[in-house]
Amino acid sequence: MKQLSTKVTSNGHGQDSSYFLGWEEYEKNPYDEIKNPNGMIQMGLAENQLCFDLIESWLAKNPDAASLKRKGQSIFKELALFQDYHGMPEFKKAMAEFMEEIRGNRVTFDPKKIVLAAGSTSANETLMFCLAEPGDAFLLPTPYYPGFDRDLKWRTGAEIVPIHCSSSNGFQITESALQQAYQQAHKLGLKVKGVLVTNPSNPLGTALTRRELNLLVDFITSKNIHLISDEIYSGTMFGFEQFISVMDVLKDKKLENTEVSKRVHVVYSLSKDLGLPGFRVGAIYSNDDMIVSAATKMSSFGLVSSQTQYLLSALLSDKKFTSQYLEENQKRLKSRQKRLVSGLESAGITCLRSNAGLFCWVDMRHLLDTNTFEAELDLWKKIVYNVKLNISPGSSCHCTEPGWFRVCFANMSEDTLDLALKRLKTFVESTDCGRMISRSSHERLKSLRKKTVSNWVFRVSWSDRVPDER
Amino acid sequence: MGSLIKSGGVSGAILSRIATNDQHGENSEYFDGWKAYDKDPFHLSRNPHGIIQMGLAENQLCLDLIKDWIKENPKASVCTPEGVYQFSDIANFQDYHGLKEFRQAIANFMGKARGGRVTFDPERIVMSGGATGANETIMFCLADPGDVFLVPSPYYAAFDRDLRWRTGVEIVPVHCSSSNNFKLTVEAVEWAYKKAVQSNKNVKGLLFTNPSNPLGTILDKDTLKNLVRFVTRNNIHLVVDEIYAATVFAGENFASVAEVVKDLDSSEVNVDLIHIVYSLSKDMGLPGFRVGIVYSYNDSVVSCARKMSSFGLVSSQTQFMLASMLSDDSFVDNFLMESSKRLGIRHGVFTLGLKKADINCLISTAGLFVWMDLRHLLRVRNSFESEIELWHIIIDKVKLNVSPGSSFQCTEPGWFRVCFANMDDDTLHVALRRIQDFVSKNSNKTAEKASDNDKLIQNNNAKKQKWKQSNLRLSFRRLYEDGLSSPGIMSPHSPLLRT
């Protein structure tokens, strides 16, 4: 309709992507252990359903928070009327401390620099409105979260220019990739306002290495641009490495309270770490007063419900709970990831070695008919419609290499995961490729394990050397 | 901050225009009242001489009913022992369609708030971050940067932010005046529309709040019908913000645009042009819960707004609770009736108290405020400078935070919006007394401070004032006798006492 805005008529919402189409198929035929055992299993949704019991038992022990009371007195009226866009001070304090705890208390977060938002969806869009004019660009390493096309670009008019990462080095960000992206933006006549990374990465499930973080900070320093670090998965780190935040790097490089630190912004949310996406709790953290001020005003368009702020401020202020939760969450995620990885291995499928996130980045290149995105889409359709698993094809994440898929593992029961793996194994073995694989599976797995080890060795290393091609 | 902008030849570091301009409207002097209030907030016992907040259109009159319901329905909370079995499903639920039960309950409530004269389709209910989010979203759906929406003035001050700031949409006001009680007419809209089109503006639609903020008046059904016909003829959109729908306390029934859509023949209304914005912040007094709704008769708009709702979904915890509460028909029926009653009483008490100070308000039958006429107290008639001066006096001397008409883009100086539903009875009583005291003192001062130019007018007025003064003093004596001005001693028949 000509009468409507171009936002209605364009595809800027990004929902025609296969990422969302898979969801729609799932909605038509959702798996249920009893009611629909042949239905589609949802493995395209990065949810954390592993630790609700911990929160539920906390609720049972904390009736005041549960029933909108403070010290036994109802504060319903206060909450009903509280719409101050500065947010509840006790809640922001609790958020700041929780963020510090996730980072091993190595860095501090000032509650006054936190701006609440309706989920990180809203937080990311708000930052774009603050930092970019329509037509300005942000550089994003590929593969990236498909929702960014909507969140960063749709209503803001900003552009995304990809920083191409490849499997040759475990999809890590390199200096040359950064420079290439920057130049590409210029070729397209776009002004680069900054770089946005998700750390730990979605869809890779890996935390950025210190080398990459240093590279990023040096890059934005030299180009005088911004860095947004979406650390929504920071509490899902389960590898034995510690999560390194961009804030750690600023501290270690002695850049705190400098002009550069004003251009580094962190986005956070409770949707993944605490598994509470329904509650819409997102946050922007910035050292730039102007951004905090502007973003705070913009938060009017998506404030966090006061009853939710109150509940979560009580939850997160309980330090005994938060430390137990973080530890248990990581334990359960690790065990679940292992289950997926070994299940895939027995089907002759490997993943990028991951140490965080709610998903694995799965290598199905060997199952493609040809090394093309058409073949990837064909494979995806087979997996969705025949194997009845909704997984996310790499192309929906703007991956430059066909054949990679994101497969989630924390949004279902163990039994459902096992069933999904069984279905996948059956499917793989039924294909020509699969039959070949099972014949030489022993050899293949041996060489795959070598690859995995070398990836691991590279990841832990702090040296600047460029990885060998493998 | 300055260094940020100066630093670096490369302009990459500079923030966006949106982040650095004033289009959010918050640097306006109108926030002076708020700032003054924040520094010295009134409290009946702890700070009885502080500033009373009468600039906040909140509805605090029926929160007890909601509180009681929540207490009696622990299952409606996912956190109580009775409701926690739902916790994980609800905490996990982020589908931007919203909980089906929530949409059904909202549709149910919206229908009841309109006396059951119209029903709403739950499939067209789209969530947003309060009406603030809803209004911005509908702009994003209907207009591109540079497009224009006509908005009758006086209008809600924050529309300048909500409709324009990040969307780039322009507002062209349709000025309404006291000559016809600020009523919006089709002629006025037509005139503003033609003028805008002649100046090569791309007018995408008309938006107004009904019942009106700040006027508290409702648009009669015939005019509403004619406006619907007007937008249909000219193929532009109509957005009606019905956020105050259930705050009607007297007079005619509120005619929602939904009713008009139902009544009119399809040749007279193109429903693809009709959109409603709603919220629970005023009708239910729950601004903290951030429940905004976009309701459109246009399928593409519903679809687009729903995708955009990702930027401001209602917390599932809140959706769940309200789904339960608003599908409790006996609660809703009683709430709507009681709310209307209490608002009516409060409005009556307040306007009566103002009348005793010879202050008139625009006759209104809805809203959480009155549109107070203080033109006679302006030092210089028809001067916005005088209005601001008077406003500062009201804040600093009378110690009330009220909102000057100019902050609502009113074209006539001297009108003020004064909220009456965001405080308890005692506080209202204190506010009224302060107003009455101020007016009686001011009637003397007006005669003293008159400039030479005004002397003639003043002489004529002085005769009127003297008459007024003696009447005022008489009425004050009566007030004193009635015990209305003495705290703690309330005549049982006083209208200020809630029965």
TrEMBL record, chain A:
Coiled coil: none annotated. It catalyses: S-adenosyl-L-methionine = 1-aminocyclopropane-1-carboxylate + S-methyl-5'-thioadenosine + H(+). One of its GO terms (biological process) is fruit ripening. Pfam families: Aminotran_1_2 (PF00155). Residues 41-424 form the Aminotransferase class I/classII large domain. Its EC number is 4.4.1.14. Pathway: Alkene biosynthesis; ethylene biosynthesis via S-adenosyl-L-methionine; ethylene from S-adenosyl-L-methionine: step 1/2. One of its GO terms (molecular function) is 1-aminocyclopropane-1-carboxylate synthase activity. It is an enzyme of class 4 (lyase). The keyword Amino-acid biosynthesis does not apply. Its cofactor is pyridoxal 5'-phosphate. Keywords: Ethylene biosynthesis, Fruit ripening, Lyase, Pyridoxal phosphate, S-adenosyl-L-methionine. It comes from the Eukaryota. Belongs to the class-I pyridoxal-phosphate-dependent aminotransferase family. 1-aminocyclopropane-1-carboxylate synthase (ACS) enzymes catalyze the conversion of S-adenosyl-L-methionine (SAM) into 1-aminocyclopropane-1-carboxylate (ACC), a direct precursor of ethylene. This is 1-aminocyclopropane-1-carboxylate synthase. It comes from Brassica campestris (Field mustard). The lineage of its organism: Eukaryota, Viridiplantae, Streptophyta, Embryophyta, Tracheophyta.
TrEMBL record, chain B:
Its cofactor is pyridoxal 5'-phosphate. It comes from Brassica campestris (Field mustard). Belongs to the class-I pyridoxal-phosphate-dependent aminotransferase family. It comes from the Eukaryota. Its EC number is 4.4.1.14. Keywords: Ethylene biosynthesis, Fruit ripening, Lyase, Pyridoxal phosphate, S-adenosyl-L-methionine. PANTHER family: 1-AMINOCYCLOPROPANE-1-CARBOXYLATE SYNTHASE 2, BIFUNCTIONAL ASPARTATE AMINOTRANSFERASE AND GLUTAMATE/ASPARTATE-PREPHENATE AMINOTRANSFERASE-RELATED. This is 1-aminocyclopropane-1-carboxylate synthase. Pfam families: Aminotran_1_2. Residues 52-435 form the Aminotransferase class I/classII large domain. One of its GO terms (molecular function) is 1-aminocyclopropane-1-carboxylate synthase activity. Pathway: Alkene biosynthesis; ethylene biosynthesis via S-adenosyl-L-methionine; ethylene from S-adenosyl-L-methionine: step 1/2. InterPro entries: Aminotransferase_I/II_large, Ethylene_sulfur-biosynth, NHTrfase_class1_PyrdxlP-BS, PyrdxlP-dep_Trfase, PyrdxlP-dep_Trfase_major, PyrdxlP-dep_Trfase_small. GO terms for biological process: ethylene biosynthetic process; fruit ripening. It is an enzyme of class 4 (lyase). It catalyses: S-adenosyl-L-methionine = 1-aminocyclopropane-1-carboxylate + S-methyl-5'-thioadenosine + H(+).
